[in-house]
Amino acid sequence: MKRFELISFPSDQALAKAAAGRWLDVIAAAQRAGKKLTVALSGGRIARTFFEAAVSESIQRNAAWTHVHFFWADERCVPPNDPENNFAIAQKLLFGPLAIADGQIHRIQGELDPSTASAQAADKLLEWTQTKPGGTPILDLVFLGMGEDGHVASLFPGDPVDVSASAPIYRPVKASKPPPMRISLGYPTIFAAREAYVLVSGPGKEPALKESVRGVDSTPLAYVLNRRQGTLVLTSVKLP
What is the CATH architecture of 7-200+213-235? Predict the structure, then answer.
């Protein structure tokens, strides 16, 4: 299996529609197999377009969601009704329109002390997933974005890898952009996910994406791509 597959789209809308279609395929396959599906969502600019596309695709397919459980790749340390909160965006654009039951949504409580919120989020994820030897949870699917600096989740450049890996599930992070305090999955849990989709859109990201796919550990996204098999990178960013 290839380390990753890079697929380009002419617009954010086309990217979102393709990602939503692939996700609905995974959801339907899990339902047919009688299995629950554990998914970690991300925020970022593309999330709004992606969530709206997922709702539209779900309505067209009359999809079932009762077997899907939602977690987060990262969260901002703000109240759950704050516009910067990743859960708040998903609640408005995805969970609400699809009438997802509260018991399927396992948000990170960013309004708490970050260490407490990280520990509680890790415990909740462990309740719902299988684990690798050593205790790293295995999510079925992780959605990631990429920032202009190549960061994924809230794993930023300059953050020592040994620190990021020391708390393999969730840990507090001081971000290089506002809001400063966040909670992020560690690299090991991202590596362990059965599938990972990286949605890359927005101006100014060409240099970081080009750098990330070179095969050198020069950005957080590159570090992920070099250590996972079969990661899917969907982008509307035009590469030379």
Answer: 3-Layer(aba) Sandwich (3.40)
